[in-house]
Amino acid sequence: MAINKNHEFEELDGVKCGIVEKNVSPERVAFLKKLLEYNKFTVVVVPSPPPKVAAVPVVKVAEGEEAPPPPPAPPPAPATFTVGVTDYTFNTINAIYGRLLKTPDGHIVTMAFWQQKENVSHDEIPYYEDVN
Question: pLDDT digits over 9-28, tens only?
Fold first, then answer.
């Protein structure tokens, strides 16, 4: 059971894992896997379960009436994945704000880099070290 929403863990492929992100695209999986493996985490990736689909209501048709056409089939769900690490104590928020993760070029991972808003992580001076 998770302590809170930011600290989830579950079994992925028979291994107890700390959940990094759920329902991520294949491109995001590649980014996270490369970054986490560089930081010496063992990454486990499994396909996310398909979303639940509501049952089609049964329409009773009286004799002599024409049945309505069946509703169109829902579009296929996009292929998404759940990413976890075998260190089930891993917490994404603590790792980023605790400055525990590094990029392959040696910079500290920032939230903007983690969210892929920036291509390069710019080391920021923590507010408590800024003496100006």
Answer: 888 989 999 999 999 999 99
